[in-house]
């Protein structure tokens, strides 16, 4: 595909798909609850469909009632059954790591695999603590998938300090803790997204959270009876980021994205864009299904470079590629600090982001774990081809770059966009009023 300047501003009101993190968790908690959980607004992207298939393979009844409306009849905590075949998690690190936590607490055998991107990602960050719970893991060198899991018959509750700020690791330990007798305690030096804690409470578990600055301690009482509860999934702020940043960069634009999740542990990008001078307004703020949501309107803005502190990284960890695109249009230097974790995402996102910018004629440098982008306030040149590297967010960021740059930008493979944002190109074209994103002519 290729994205080029639309010749006019982007305008309109759109909805983006449901939150990926919440969608995975809704299916998993539905499978662990007693009774039938109704989920609305579920993201029907490839990643979440893998979780749905895995929950079926583990014995839950999972049914699609209507678009975004799913029903899960659960088996109760400790009630999952041994899957008859290998569980293929596709491109999804969240699915793979959280399911390791689920499996660790059940006395069963399972094998997890995924696509080439997922098979390259580190799993020790979950298998290490989950081994202390009593599960046994056998994987490839470096603790990578495919991974064989023997869950624990009598899982032990952990007292664990997260060595990396990762909601996936925190969630895996808490999910294993559901099956353990006693209190599982997780300490995180930097607060990460808290959808697991929120949903545990929503399904009836007892969870205590003590916050002290950025540090949090979470305690879960093991072996609760989780009861089915309806889940309303808000629109994903990580997906809303793409049309909103595009509107900030394409002159004459004003775009509203409706019902976006505004959980404070997810909104680092929006705070950063405002510091850069973005006109980004929230209206109709409300609470839906226990999460804060609002309509977000972005209007074309002249941006300036800022320093993004490392402590903000967990609240915008998936948004750095598109922030780097915005930084290329800002006047001055944007220094994004403390991005080491980007090296182990769907791609090495630090390198992939630098390559994306280079393809569009923008120089960016990596200094240690910092990404530094300097612009002069004029549009990036554009004109190159970006390698997606099996990473949906690199593909979408590159297409946003193409909409705003002086010349079109091509992307080698946009298939992975369906992992998190089915319908992305059509939605952006609707805002652009034409075929700004279209198949690229054969080279
Ligand atoms: C997620 C946590 C983050 C994020 C991912 C979703 C989650 O990963 O990048 O897209 O749903 O818990 P890490 O836990 O590796 O930071």
Helix content: 25-40%
Tell me, rounded to a whole number, the average pLDDT: 97
Q: Describe the main β-sheet briefly.
A: 4 strands, mixed
Quick one: overall form? Answer: globular
Backbone structural class: alpha/beta
The molecules bound to the chains, other than polymers, are:
shikimate-3-phosphate
What amount of the residues lies in strands? 25-35%
What radius of gyration results from the CA coordinates? 21 Å
CATH superfamily of the largest domain: Enolpyruvate transferase domain
**Secondary structure tally, helices:** 13
CATH topology of the largest domain: UDP-n-acetylglucosamine1-carboxyvinyl-transferase, Chain
Cross-sheet strand order for the largest sheet: 22-23-1-24
CATH class of the largest domain: Alpha Beta
Whole-number total of structural domains:
2
Poorly predicted runs: none
Whole-Å distance between the termini? 12 Å
CATH architecture of the largest domain: Alpha-beta prism
What does this entry show, briefly?
This protein has 443 residues and is an alpha/beta fold.
């Amino acid at each position: 595909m290729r994205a080029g300047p639309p010749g006019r501003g982007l305008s309109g009101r759109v909805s983006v798909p449901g939150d990926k993190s919440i969608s995975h968790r809704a299916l998993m908690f539905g499978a662990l609850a007693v009774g039938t959980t109704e989920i609305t607004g579920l993201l029907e992207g490839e990643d979440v469909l893998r979780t749905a298939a895995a929950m079926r393979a583990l014995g839950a009844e999972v049914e699609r009632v209507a678009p975004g409306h799913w029903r899960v009849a659960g088996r109760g905590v400790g009630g999952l059954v041994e899957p008859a075949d290998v569980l293929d998690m596709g491109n999804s690190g969240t699915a793979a790591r959280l399911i390791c936590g689920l499996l660790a607490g059940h006395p069963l055998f399972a094998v997890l695999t995924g696509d080439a991107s997922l098979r390259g990602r580190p799993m020790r960050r979950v298998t290490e603590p989950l081994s202390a719970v009593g599960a046994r893991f056998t994987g490839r060198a470096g603790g990578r998938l495919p991974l064989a899991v023997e869950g624990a018959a009598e899982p032990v509750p952990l007292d664990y300090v997260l060595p990396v700020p990762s909601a996936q690791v925190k969630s895996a330990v808490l999910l294993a803790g559901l099956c353990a007798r006693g209190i599982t305690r997780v300490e995180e030096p930097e607060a990460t997204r808290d959808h697991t804690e929120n949903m545990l409470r929503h399904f009836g578990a007892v969870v205590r959270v003590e916050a002290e600055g950025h540090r949090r301690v979470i305690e879960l009482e093991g072996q609760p009876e989780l009861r089915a509860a309806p889940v309303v999934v808000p629109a994903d702020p990580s997906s809303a980021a793409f049309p909103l940043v595009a509107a900030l960069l394409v002159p004459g634009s004003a775009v509203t994205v409706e019902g976006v999740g505004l959980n404070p542990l997810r909104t680092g990008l929006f705070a950063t864009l405002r510091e850069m001078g973005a006109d980004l307004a929230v209206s109709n703020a409300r609470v839906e299904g226990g999460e804060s949501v609002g309509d977000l309107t972005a209007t074309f803005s002249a941006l300036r470079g800022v320093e993004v502190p490392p402590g903000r990284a967990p609240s915008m960890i998936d948004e750095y590629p598109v922030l780097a695109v915005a930084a290329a249009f800002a006047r001055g230097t944007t220094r994004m600090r403390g991005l080491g974790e980007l090296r182990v995402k769907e791609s090495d996102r630090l390198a992939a982001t630098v390559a994306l910018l280079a393809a569009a004629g923008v120089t960016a440098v990596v200094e240690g774990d910092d990404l530094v982008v300097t612009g002069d306030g004029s549009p990036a040149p554009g004109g190159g081809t970006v390698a997606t590297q099996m990473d949906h967010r690199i593909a979408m960021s590159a297409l946003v770059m193409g909409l705003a740059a002086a010349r079109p930008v091509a992307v080698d493979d946009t298939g992975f966009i369906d992992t998190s944002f089915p319908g992305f190109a059509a939605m952006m074209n609707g805002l652009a009023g034409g075929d700004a994103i279209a198949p690229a002519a054969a080279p």
